[in-house]
Amino acid sequence: MGNECNYEKLFGFPSNQSEMFFHIMEFFSGHEFSQLSPHLNWFVAECIYHFGEERTLSFLHDYSSTRVQLQTIEEYFHGDMQFLYIVEKNLTSNDYIELQSMSSFMDGLRRYAALLATQHGASVEKVAHDCGTNRRFVQRLKRAFQVS
Q1: How far apart are CA 49 and CA 34, in angstroms?
Q2: Considering the chain, what is the average pLDDT of its residues?
């Protein structure tokens, strides 16, 4: 016994070698980015667009839930001036970007998966159960995206 804790299971932080990481990569490759991106934070969506899912998830794994300086972003994602221009336009007054938490990222994926399931005719109860949420969340999602 010890004070060890499996944070991946507890909070959903996928390491690059974890089974969850590979499931997330499969999820991305199986869906159209233009449909998925509105459910993601702007920074994550831009990173995926410019650098791909794997590199973005690695960056999130290392820096989620933190304030990251522009210099760190430039070092990690060097070479793409369009991306850096977009990031610079969204900096705080002291050259930081506040990154979303990994759980917030996972919530975006969950929202998208729930929306897809409802659009394909799954019942509210099944979607709520499968996505680990409640009926009210699914009903609000259906209303927001006008799913019958």
Answers
A1: 9
A2: 84
